[in-house]
Amino acid sequence: xxxxxxxxxxxxxxxxxxxxxxxxxxxxxxxxxxxxxxxxxxxxxxxxxxxxxxxxxxxxxxxxxxxxxxxxxxxxxxxxxxxxxxxxxxxxxxxxxxxxxxxxxxxxxxxxxxxxxxxxxxxxxxxxxxxxxxxxxxxxxxxxxxxxxxxxxxx
Length: 155
What we know:
Layout lengths: L11 E3 L5 E3 L7 E6 L6 H12 L1 H6 L2 E7 L3 H11 L4 E4 L4 H6 L3 E4 L2 E4 L2 E5 L5 E5 L7 H16 L1
Parallel strand pairs: 3-4, 4-5
Antiparallel strand pairs: 1-2, 3-8, 6-7, 8-9
C-alpha cells in the first residue's frame, strides 16, 4: 500500500457520465478518493448514500469526494441513477490506479474484489491518510473529522 507522505498517483479516468477526470482537476483542494468493491452491493450502496448525504458538509469544508471501482461507466451511471448519488464515481476497469496504490484484493464466494480503501489527498497532491479495510458505516464522518483536523494543523 502506498503510504502517507507519497504523492497520489496521477490518473485519468472516466466518471459515470464518461467525462475524463484527472488528479490535476483537484490541484489546491483536499480530496477523498475511496475505493469500493462493486456497484449496487450492500456496503458500496451504504457508502455512496452516506457520501451523497454529507456532500454539503464536504463541500463546505472544501473537500471533494471521488468513488472508484473496476466497474464500467455504464454500471456507474446505473448505480448513480438508482440511488440519486451526487458524487462522481470513476471507472478503473484495468485497475491501473488501484494497482499503482497497492490496494489489496479479497475473495468472496470464489470471486476476487478490490478491498474497500480510502485515501485523503492534500491540496499539493500528497497522500495524508490511508484507511484500509474500511467499514462503510459512518466512514464518511471519520474522514470529514480527520480532514478538518488536518486542515486546522495546516492553517
